[in-house]
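The instructor's notes for this session suggest beginning with a concrete chain rather than abstract definitions. Hand out the sequence below and ask the class to guess, before any prediction is shown, which regions might be ordered.
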Amino acid sequence: MKHESRDMRLFSLRRGTNQVRFGLLAASTPPFMPVSPPAAKQSAAPKSFEIKSAQLPLVALLVHTTDWQQLQQDLLAEFGPQGESPDFFDHDALVVDFSALPGETPVDDIVPVLRTLRQCNLMPVAIRGASDAWMQAARELGLCQAEPEVYHHSRPAETQALPAVAVQEVVREVVHEVVREVPGPATMVVDKPLRSGQKVYARGADLVVLAPVNQGAEVVADGNIHVYSTLRGKAMAGARGNVNARIFALNLDPELVSIAGVYRTSENPLAPEVRGKSAQVRLSDDGLEKLLFEALKS
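After discussion, reveal the predicted structure:
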């Protein structure tokens, strides 16, 4: 959405009706009297503000329960000051997503939930996927309404034949776009073993680890995670919602793996063909967002 900025006038100027009697002026003015140049026009004062459109990265909390007390306990256990990952977030802006709840969910007091989110270093700024009654309650709490997330699916190609000239023009444009260089994401490299209690977060980047990630250690990245050694700790890729992120390890035997919030713990043992072997972890591309574990062929 584009916001158009308008200049706000803080004052107005009116042109007066003064009359100059040139005859009297000439009679009373001494000969050869120098005439002063007109005063320089004052420059307009700079605007005190501008309003522009902006695109900011947001974290979405998809709510699956109306048991607010249980939700608070789970959030604090995972990301609270005494939780497993207290420094996982860094005052990230958050959208509370109610799209997974029934539409007739009654309006309730979520101020304690918002307070809990702030304890987890999350800053709630908007709500989406809720009923009109919930939206009204959210606005009274200072939250804005966010648009539902839109998933773009590829459309079948047009079967109608195009003129030859038009086809040549399209091909020329495609080639022009392909040859442009697009800068890739940054990469963080760790070349020392990570012991229990240690945590590494590659914010906005891929993470490459050249040493073992021992049990109790955590490696987190907004992009991909590459462990060119043994992975026995926790690995969380796509921490800010990148569903295309992947985890690679030469020896995969983790406590926990997670991609874009979809996780699996060691309570569910890995299949023999991937456990302790070179493998990758990714999300399925069928829209179900299931974790897939695949052995890497040498």
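Then share the key points. The chain is about 15% helix and 25% strand. The longest helix spans residues 164-178.
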